[in-house]
Specification:
By secondary structure, the protein is of the alpha/beta class. The protein contains 5 helices and 7 strands; from the N terminus they run E-H-E-H-H-E-E-E-H-E-E-H. A hairpin with a 2-residue loop joins strand 3 and strand 4. Helix 1 runs parallel beside helix 3.
Length: 159
């Protein structure tokens, strides 16, 4: 199994440009599972909750997630990418997992760090493991690694 980690500096607030950059980088990568950065489609340093809300997308119908699904299908790979999820009046620092057959799962960051508590709601879903055929994958975002239960208690498979 080959895992690829794609690192780049997203342009703050320019989702279209970031999706284009992601597409170019994914096209150049050969891996079974590709991991993209936290908030890779929006950038990270926000100044207001309204800015976050304007950049948020619904999952699984948002433009970034749909672009990731197209890329995963074309590459025959799985992609994990961070973005802002909007559900009702809530915004989450989220991570989506997609594959050749489409959307698989969303993880919402549980352990928000510093000013993230101003912009995002804490994750409200159980931890889960997802079987992608070649392996099983659990999702977490950045500061979550500090807390051992995030990796230790991944919850039911396929949730």
């Amino acid at each position: 199994m080959r895992v690829g980690f794609i690192q780049f500096t997203p342009v703050l607030g320019d989702i279209n440009r970031n999706i284009l950059n992601i597409s170019t980088l994914v096209d150049k990568t050969d891996a079974h599972l590709l991991v993209l950065p936290e908030l890779c489609n929006t950038g990270y340093h926000f100044v207001s909750r309204s800015e976050v809300e304007a950049l948020a997308e619904e999952i699984p119908s948002g433009k970034t997630q749909e672009a990731l699904c197209r890329l995963a299908k074309a590459k025959g790979s799985y992609i994990n990418a961070g973005l802002i999820e909007k559900t009702g009046d809530r915004c989450y620092n989220a991570s989506v997992l997609v594959g050749p057959a489409g959307y698989i799962a969303t993880y919402r960051k549980i352990h928000l760090f510093f000013e993230e508590t101003l912009w995002f709601d804490p994750g409200d879903r159980e931890l889960a493991v997802h079987d992608i055929g070649i392996c099983r994958v659990g999702l977490m975002i950045c500061f979550d690694w500090i807390f051992p239960e995030t990796a230790r208690d991944p919850g039911p498979q396929g949730s």
